[in-house]
Amino acid sequence: MPSGLKRDLGLPETTAIAIGAMVGSGIFILPALAYEIAGTTVILAFIIAAVLVLPAAASKAEMATAMPEDGGTYIYVERGMGPLLGTIAGVGTWFSLSFKGALALVGGVPYLIYLAGGELPLSIRAIAITVAVVLIALNLVGSDVTGRFQVGIVAIMLAIMMLFITIGTPQVQAPRLEGAFDPRSSGALSLFEAAGAVFVSYAGVTKVASVAEEIENPSRNIPLGIFISLFFTAALYVLVVLVTIGVVDAPGGTLGTIDIPGAEDAVIAEAANNLLGWPGVIAITIAAMFALISTANAGILSASRYPFAMARDDLAPRQFTDISERFGTPSKAVTLTGAIILLMIAFVPILQIAKLASAFQILVFVLVNLALIGFREGAVDGYDPDYVAPLYPWLQLFGIVAGLGLLTTMGTIPIVGAVVITGGSMAWYYTYAHKRIDREGAARSGIRQEVSATALDRTRDLFESTREYDVLVAITERTSDRAKRDMVRMATDLGRLRTTVVTVAEFLDVPHRVFHEDHAEVYDLDEPEWIRDESGDRPDWLPDGAFRPPKRTSGGVQIDAKRTDDRPTTKVEHREIDSEDHKEAIVDYATYEGYDLLVLERDRAHLHERMFGNETDWLLKNAPCDVMLVEDRGFDGADEIAVVAARGTYDPIKLLIADAVAEETGASIHLIQALGEDAPDTQREDVEQYHQELISICTVEARSSIIETDDRVAGLARFVGDADLLVTGVDSSGLRGRLLSSPSNQLVESVECTAVMVQGHDSTRAQGLIGRLLMNYVFK
């Protein structure tokens, strides 16, 4: 959408922004610190860090050419992974860039102290604040002025560094570089710890995307600017560090012999002093000042675009979208970012905070790789990048795993800091932004579409299967005659869709006997009297030939191999099973006989039973097959059957049962699904498409209703309305469900019609806790 920002940054300015964001603390401050960790292999550590940055650089280049909008990391993570992770990435990267900008402004202190011989005429903080004010003013004037300024200072800085390399390379003493490219010389752990320490040196490579909306010809200049700056800066780092190690003494594992308090880390200045004398020190100090000012400038420029982009998406106050009519810059976003940097310079121990922000930067790069996977797998409409990252998804998976592994080497404090920033971002999202947005990330939509496609395949397979389907109707002494008839009726209805064998088993408890075998006693019975209606007639729905004696001793009914036609058939048998514990006998019998479906009467649980579990809970937990619980309120046929899904997809057996009963009664099916009131449009569209596919599978007339409500039970009960039968699922009860009853139980108890609750065995076992949480997230 038009934003008012001017596209006036060409390839030179784009590349200069990235180089300027990188060549600062990475080369002038960190080499001495990393040398103490890994010795001469610090050179290899810089190379490893560059390789680990490459996946995020490629991912960001692709997403930037598809969405050339200001905001960079925030935009891609938000669009790919959703507003919550986008908020974390946006807030975290904004702080990280601000921290790094402030660090750069005070990071030249060692070089100024070295040049002054230990004394400075002005306060360090006063100098840093003055430079910061100038840079903030430049960013308020316009990105074209900022870009030209960036090109100028980067050109001067690079000219001095190239001179340093040219003069220093011939004077490198090879013995000082011994083991520099051998990981064994320092150990793998130390090497990767050093790589983690210098990782932040390359963080600026992706900052090009933060100003993507102001880059001309973004499809060409963004990827070129990113990769040119990364490879050039990596080579520059390696050569500068190599020369420095090769010309500077390193006694006791410390690079350099500087004895000026406060200047110990100015090892590049000492190297220049060894090569060129005092003129070299002056030149390197100028380069350091330009590099660090360049880093700070790039930090202000890119960081200020994060609140601007977040405000456009209602994740931050709308005031930050204001564009200066005179200069065409996001003036309020720049002012806020500048104010944060000034406060940091004045009051905060910036070095430690910058280290914490570096750890979060690694985490942000992990999110960038995840975001690209979200876009690719989500099949997002309109996602058409001009540059496509290679080696997908292996390059991104490598970046994710390597980034998380690198994060573990940085110590406890940086990790805790990243967690604090993440927690703060989440708090901001839920207190401010959550109610203002109604969209989701591409990954969430992609996962939902994939889950729906898998559920549809399972449903088609179940409907099209010709395998014999065995049903056990378990009756106890508490089951009423009416409930028995209705349970048998629904079980035999499955025979309208596929060949079905129904075993009606009356489980009776007998007193304990000392001299008695452990297994239950099974008896074959004739047709029960209770199957007949009040007038004594056999019901019309009872299949012909039902209750024939079994033909196999194990208890099931052997279906004749030959059939006279292609229509499914139903056989019903009647048994009595005596045992000392009927619930264990039910599970044992269902397991031994290999039944596909267990039909039980639903047992209403009182509070103490919900807390500690009742018989139904035990059976649901231990059943070896699908389970159907029947809440019988009288079932004399149906005109409409309501099939409900509160969250997630429909279990295939739930739809099969509803369709079979509808076939026998001549009813239609009403698919009802509840979404939250803040459900994004993409979720509703995905669910509507899923319902249409389900309707095409059903053998009877069906329709669909999708409701949006935060009170799912009340909303669903209202739409069930005058239905003659409710088919719903079984919730896994947590503490809230045990205290207040689960939503599915509340729904069954709030309607007047007969209800059926279905628990799919395979889906319940395969889904697990993580699967249920994921289902709640993508379908909430």
From TrEMBL:
UniProt cross-references to SUPFAM superfamilies, sorted A to Z: Adenine nucleotide alpha hydrolases-like
Stretches for region Disordered: 541-569
Transmembrane regions: 12-31, 37-58, 122-142, 149-167, 187-205, 226-248, 281-303, 333-351, 357-375, 387-407, 413-432
Membrane association type: Multi-pass membrane protein
Sequence ranges of Basic and acidic residues compositional bias: 560-569
CDD domains attached to this UniProt entry: USP-like
GO molecular function: transmembrane transporter activity
Main location: membrane
Gene Ontology CC terms, in alphabetical order: plasma membrane
Localization: Cell membrane
Domain UspA: 471-630
Keywords, comma-separated and alphabetical: Cell membrane, Membrane, Transmembrane, Transmembrane helix
Protein's recorded name: Universal stress protein
Upper lineage: Archaea, Methanobacteriati, Methanobacteriota, Stenosarchaea group, Halobacteria
